[in-house]
Amino acid sequence: MAEFTMELNDEQKEVRDWIHGFAADVIRPAAAEWDEREETPWPVIQEAAKVGIYSLDFYAQQYFDPTGLGIPMAMEELFWGDAGIALSIVGTGLAAVGVLANGTEEQIGTWIPQMYGDANDVKVAAFCSSEPDAGSDVASMRTRAVYDEAKDEWVLNGTKTWATNGGIANVHVVVAVVDSELGSKGHASFIVPLGTPGLSQGQKFKKHGIRASHTAEVVLENVRVPGSCLLGGKEKLDERLARARERAKAGGGERLKNAAMATFEASRPAVGAMAVGTARAAYEVALDYAKTREQFGRPIIDNQGVAFQLADMRTSIDAARLLVWRASWMAVSGKQFTSAEGSMSKLFASETAKKVTGQAIQILGGNGYTREYPVERMHRDAAIYTIFEGTSEIQRLVIARTLSGMPIR
Ligand SMILES: Cc1cc2nc3c(=O)[nH]c(=O)nc-3n(C[C@H](O)[C@H](O)[C@H](O)COP(=O)(O)OP(=O)(O)OC[C@H]3O[C@@H](n4cnc5c(N)ncnc54)[C@H](O)[C@@H]3O)c2cc1C
């Protein structure tokens, strides 16, 4: 197990500085333009691919950092650059993790390269779980996958929503119900390549923030994929379903839910780290502004009303980072999340980003409220962290249930 340390080693510092350089030189200068265009920033993704930041290798390297700090460090720096563009760069990772976690070696080898493409022809991937009537309540998912044994094909029908890169992805990872009696344990994931008949993009959402990131509905009408597109394969699925049915019969439903929650606990700190990046970016702009903007013959930071806000902002950001680092270290060390530490980190960092970016607008006064300064965009962007990958209310629910051991509703 890796020793917990709050100091990055030399190699990590080098990687952090490299990512920071890309965020400062390539992402940040492009942020306002792509926010206004509300389009996927393909040229920036391509630049990221050229330098090696948009690739599976890059994520694998950070993911397998034994201290657990590789992913949070990378996320913080990229999202410090700009949240919308950074999500366009890391969104594929969500689908890739779906394949890595559930796929066979052959599926990993076939599909992950197709998710990223190469530097001359970059591709993206989408992870499609949420539905119009199944957001926080994932178990109420309606998209069905039915096996056609004669043809060894799966037939998918349903509508997915809020899919990052949905409809423009080269590869869609679609979660669907294969046994409606088993709640979320009756779900399975399928690969649906772009161009598969019956797969189409529904509406593309016009969003409040992270506007450079494409978010859309994905419609599946009698989509047929070969048996080889079921992640993990049929044999493994049948075994898993049989085990789940046995446990359900024996009254082990709560244990099943807890197993699913443990998986989320390990992935939530990454979203917390994104929030830390956005919060830090806004805080830095506000600090610089407060030191240079003069009113009443002195810099506004000379007023305690402003300086104390900055003190609180920085304190919350550092506290959020520490929670994120703790949870990331726990995940990589195989520690049990006995107090829902992953959810704690996501909850605190998300709420911090929302608050701090709002405070930054206040410190910049009228300028903060305009699109001439980046804090207005950062504040719009920050609102997403309290919503996706489990809302703040759901994080509180998970923490409360974990602490109390009660099925709090
Ligand atoms: C920009 C964006 C990108 C996204 N990307 C993806 C993606 O790539 N793939 C994907 O599958 N999904 C994605 N999502 C979906 C996201 O995960 C969901 O929006 C989120 O889980 C919330 O679901 P919902 O929007 O249906 O809200 P709802 O679940 O309807 O919640 C509405 C409100 O009710 C509250 N609430 C619900 N249940 C409870 C409860 N039990 N106790 C207290 N409060 C409760 C919620 O906290 C929230 O405030 C994305 C969403 C957005 C906005």
UniProtKB/TrEMBL annotation:
Chain ranges of the Acyl-CoA dehydrogenase/oxidase C-terminal domain: 259-403
Domain Acyl-CoA dehydrogenase/oxidase N-terminal, chain residue ranges per copy: 9-115
Molecular-function GO terms, alphabetical: acyl-CoA dehydrogenase activity; flavin adenine dinucleotide binding
Pfam families: Acyl-CoA_dh_1, Acyl-CoA_dh_M, Acyl-CoA_dh_N
Coiled-coil ranges per UniProt: none
Cofactors that this protein relies on: FAD
All residue ranges annotated as the Acyl-CoA oxidase/dehydrogenase middle domain in the record: 126-223
SUPFAM superfamilies: Acyl-CoA dehydrogenase C-terminal domain-like (SSF47203), Acyl-CoA dehydrogenase NM domain-like (SSF56645)
Listed InterPro entries: Acyl-CoA_DH_CS, Acyl-CoA_Oxase/DH_mid-dom, Acyl-CoA_Oxase/DH_mid-dom_sf, AcylCo_DH-like_C, AcylCo_DH/oxidase_C, AcylCoA_DH/ox_N, AcylCoA_DH/ox_N_sf, AcylCoA_DH/oxidase_NM_dom_sf
UniProt keyword terms in alphabetical order: FAD, Flavoprotein, Oxidoreductase
Similarity-based family: Belongs to the acyl-CoA dehydrogenase family.
PANTHER family membership: ACYL-COA DEHYDROGENASE, ISOVALERYL-COA DEHYDROGENASE, MITOCHONDRIAL-RELATED
The protein's name: Acyl-CoA dehydrogenase
